[in-house]
Amino acid sequence: MEGMMRVCIVIVGLILSLLSIEAYEVGLTFLDSAVAQGAVCLDGSAPAYHIDKGFGAGIDNWLVFFEGGGWCNNVTNCLARRDTRLGSSKQMLTTEVFSGMFHNKPKYNPDFYDWNRIKVRYCDGASFTGDVEAVDPKTNLHFRGARIFRVVIEDLLAKGMKNAKNCDNFRSLLPATTKVKCLSDAGFFINAKTIIGTSHIEGFYADVVRTHGSAKVLSPACTSKMSPGLCFFPQNMVQYIKTPIFLINAAYDSWQVKNILAPGVADQKGTWRECKLDITKCSSSQLNILQGYRQEFLKALTGFDNSPSRGMFINSCYSHCQTGTQETWLRNDSPLLSNTTIAKAVGDWYYERGTFQKIDCPYPCDKTCHNRVF
């Protein structure tokens, strides 16, 4: 028994050692000066981000990642979110794991390892778009995401991003000489109906935009043609984006299946519960519905033209977010399309070594997937 215990301890030690190599922790930076500008989280606390500074040849290159985490569409939902890490920097962990696209070793992140890599924490509930001046003293809710976006960029500019040569961010806030490209990881949420035919997500987004005052931040080119809530959908906005952009998305995005296709309000008897937890538990009729959702997703991509400045890696996995973990970004068992990892596809596109616009065959054909099991 003692011998077995030693073997177990050694194996656990090796696993932990491997995990520590593939990922490491980076401390949290609070932007306390932003509070006076009203650029605050839902609860009025200061915004925050994690930064791992660049070095060597990458010292003037910047990768700025704006975290996601769903939305709150009304006062009740925002109150439920306010005192969590998604509504308050006071509730955030003081360190964050950096792995995958954020790693600082060329073995794990060959094209961006020496860049300044930043994760901006999400705490406003409207994808950094809200801007409402008034604060109800009864709730103390602040809808100020757009202000957070701006003060974070201003702070990073002061810390050296004004010298940026390469930077994944928005063109207008950066020096004219900066090469700017954008990457969307699991952010292409589509306007699809639920399993019972209702337009749940469309109404939800309309409420988000109304509650947070987001209309003024959305593209006028879009809002002049349709309601602001519809302009919250990437499929209606992508045609107006001039900056080169790369989409990484699972055609069976696990978040979308759980929250757009089969949310609780549309599945009150829980018949989709097991399927949403593990795609291998889906019935044949549920798989048929998922295949239909994939077709809707691909149809929504039609506005995403095939210009060489645009890239896409659309695999047939049941997952959500694939750049921030080593196993899906770059490893010997990572997801592949045309025998290419996500890391290589993005790097080739960014440095213009080649174009990459690939869409996977339908589930379950792709055996390289890391399907989520919840």
UniProtKB/TrEMBL annotation:
InterPro entries per record: PAE/NOTUM
EC number annotated for this UniProt entry: 3.1.1.-
Tagged with keyword Transport: no
Enzyme class: hydrolase
Subcellular location: Secreted, Cell wall
Main localization of the protein described in the UniProt heading: secreted
Molecular function GO labels: pectin acetylesterase activity
Family: Belongs to the pectinacetylesterase family.
Stated role: Hydrolyzes acetyl esters in homogalacturonan regions of pectin. In type I primary cell wall, galacturonic acid residues of pectin can be acetylated at the O-2 and O-3 positions. Decreasing the degree of acetylation of pectin gels in vitro alters their physical properties.
Name of the protein described by the UniProt record: Pectin acetylesterase
Lineage, broadest ranks: Eukaryota, Viridiplantae, Streptophyta, Embryophyta, Tracheophyta
